[in-house]
Amino acid sequence: MNIMDIQAEKNVLIERLQKVNDLSLIQALKHMLDYGLREKESWISIEQYNKELEDSDAEIDKGEFLTHQQAVKEINAWREK
Fold first, then answer.
1. Residues 58 and 74 in one domain
2. DSSP at 51
3. Are 74 and 66 in contact (CB under 8 A)?
4. Mean pLDDT of all residues in the chain?
């Protein structure tokens, strides 16, 4: 797709977006755009993702985690500062 085609598609999208009155649809589109605009350099590989999951599981097995109540208490303490 060349630059002119891309610009034409953007214009069509803008025209259609102007007609939308559904907030949830607008928010969903916004999230999709945010996702698509993220730097791909910040993405991790599936191998890194799986390693992080394994590391997290190991921490949980060792008891290194907060319960929901502990996390809420800690967050509330941050807010009080």
1. yes
2. H
3. yes
4. 90
